[in-house]
Amino acid sequence: MSDNSVVGKHILITGGASGIGAESALLLSKRGASVTIADVNEVDGAILVQRINDEGGQARFCKVDVSVSQSVEMLFKSAIDELGNIDVLINNAGIDHDPKFMLEIDDATFHKNIAVNVNGVWYCMKQALAHMLENGGGHVINISSVAGIRAAPTLSAYSAAKHAVVGLTKSAAVEYARYNIRFNAVCPSFVRTPMVENVLSKLDERGKKALINANPMKRLGEPQEIAGAIAWLCTPESSFMTGHTVVLDGGMTA
Ligand SMILES: NC(=O)c1ccc[n+]([C@@H]2O[C@H](COP(=O)([O-])OP(=O)(O)OC[C@H]3O[C@@H](n4cnc5c(N)ncnc54)[C@H](O)[C@@H]3O)[C@@H](O)[C@H]2O)c1
């Protein structure tokens, strides 16, 4: 097996039914990993699993709401029962919110962003940790955002949640390095996924242009470009990296 191989690894991807998670599932299964795709969206998850299995890969769908701890507990039990020990967890499930100044964001929106984007990552990290400790090691890849490393005006609730994801990643990496469990975060800027298509659909032409031109490359990232970096993190080539953020932003934060 070459150093850049994911062959035979079992990779669990939350939010795997759409966008960055779905592209990651497609790429990793093409490269020989077996994937558990976990999502609230059963319809798209089932379609993706069918496609991967039809193309000769090994995938399984599991319904989960990452904001509910019992649901996450059941996900891990079922994923391990069906496809064996989990080598890599990709904590990718996430939501955003309508762009608004802080005073206009209601408490329910803030709490929902924390529930999915922070509590969801927390519950999954804890399940993965217990399992990986027993298993002798593993890697957790948390999908944060450039909104997790710098200001994101009009996205304060999302930004708070994504900063928390980076904090959890760093602390866990230092605590568990001695147990052969690594934690890294991926921080994309705007990527062409249903999440961003939805934002674009609500903007006028000037707003759309501003969003697309927000980085020096003056374009959106493609989900395949994020999946490529995630897939590299899943290989042994990233073995000395823990507690860091991989920023994929077209130069936005340079
Ligand atoms: N698209 C971007 O520009 C961008 C930029 C930076 C970070 N991100 C982050 O990347 C990740 C993936 O985003 P995307 O753009 O592919 O979005 P997406 O909306 O296409 O996919 C997100 C997936 O998460 C699932 N999900 C939402 N809530 C869930 C829950 N409670 N439990 C389980 N699954 C749930 C959705 O059903 C969906 O399939 C998110 O964490 C997002 O915050 C996206």
From TrEMBL:
Instruction: Kindly indicate whether the keyword Electron transport belongs to this entry.
Output: no
Q: Which CDD domains does this one have?
A: SDR_c
- Recorded GO MF terms: oxidoreductase activity
User: Could you tell me the superkingdom of the organism this chain comes from?
Assistant: Bacteria
PROSITE patterns linked to this entry: ADH_SHORT
Alphabetically list the UniProt keywords: Oxidoreductase
- Family in the record: Belongs to the short-chain dehydrogenases/reductases (SDR) family.
Q: Which NCBIfam families match?
A: PRK07231.1 (NF005559)
Instruction: Please give the name of this protein.
Output: Levodione reductase
